[in-house]
Amino acid sequence: MGAGHSHRLYRHGHSPVHALPPHTKLAAVLAFVVVVVSTPREAMWAFGAYAVLLAAVAHAARVPAGFLLRRLLIEVPFVAFAVLLPFVAEGERVDVLGLSLSVNGLWGAWNVLAKGTLGVAASVLLAATTELRELLHGLQRLRLPPLLVQIASFMVRYGDVITDEMRRMRIARESRGFEARGVRHWGVLAKSAGALFIRSYERGERVHLAMVSRGYTGVMPVIDEVAASRAQWSYALALPCAALVVCLLGWAL
């Protein structure tokens, strides 16, 4: 997978969470999300307990609350959808502040907000403590189909390349006095998009030929073989195991 590729969600650090092998963190986050989704929506206290568990992980990873909260803004569309549910859902109605709201809609909105927020928070913590290159290694270690791992690797690697090409084309247009001000300029933008596609396709062909000339046979070599000890697995799975206890109590109480 070559050289590392940092991303904006990653926060450099030397915490115990950063030091865990990536496949253990991926497995832990997946298990945690499954447990959260399996929790009955009526057990509202359980979701508070999950939030406390994530806060403990963030503290161990030395991820500031502000950093985490800013990244949670990505779920704003889901929040908007949840806000609409009490108004559009059918069934028994209840008056809240003079508004007629659906009881099922209120429960549905709470369900989406609670589980969605916890899932996004867990994903943000994973991204904040694991470099993108390590995530790909973790997926490979977890036996994800190699072709999917390669596609993800190439997408990450050349996303910035294409973005850079778009930036250079924009600068070239602006240096010639072009400014997109209305529908009449859409033709120029469409031609630019077509040129970008052709350049990207040609670059992809050149990269493939270069890889084949260096012995590529359809399988990416594993440069860093990362193994996890029993202690590291225990440390990583502490979060989903604690969440599982909360989930079982939520069903029992």
What's the quick description here?
The chain has 253 residues and is mainly alpha-helical.
Using brief descriptors, characterize the structure shown.
11 helices; membrane; 2 strands; 3% strand; Cobalt ECF transporter T component CbiQ; ABC/ECF_trnsptr_transmembrane; ECF_CbiQ; 253 residues; mainly alpha
Report on this model:
With about 250 residues, the chain is mainly alpha-helical. It contains eleven helices and two strands. Strands 1-2 form a two-stranded antiparallel ribbon. Helix 2 packs antiparallel against helix 6. It is flat. The chain starts with 15 loop residues before the first helix and ends with a helix.
Query: How much helicity do the residues have?
Result: 55-70%
* Uncertain residue segments: none
Strand percentage lies at under 5%
Average pLDDT confidence is 86
Q: What is the CA-CA span between the terminal residues?
A: 48 Å
Q: Report the count of strand segments.
A: 2
- Annotation field: number of helices: 11
Task: Tell me the strand order in the biggest sheet.
Answer: 1-2
How many whole angstroms does the radius of gyration measure?
A: 23 Å
Subcellular location: Cell membrane
Protein name: Cobalt ECF transporter T component CbiQ
Membrane topology: Multi-pass membrane protein
Main location: membrane
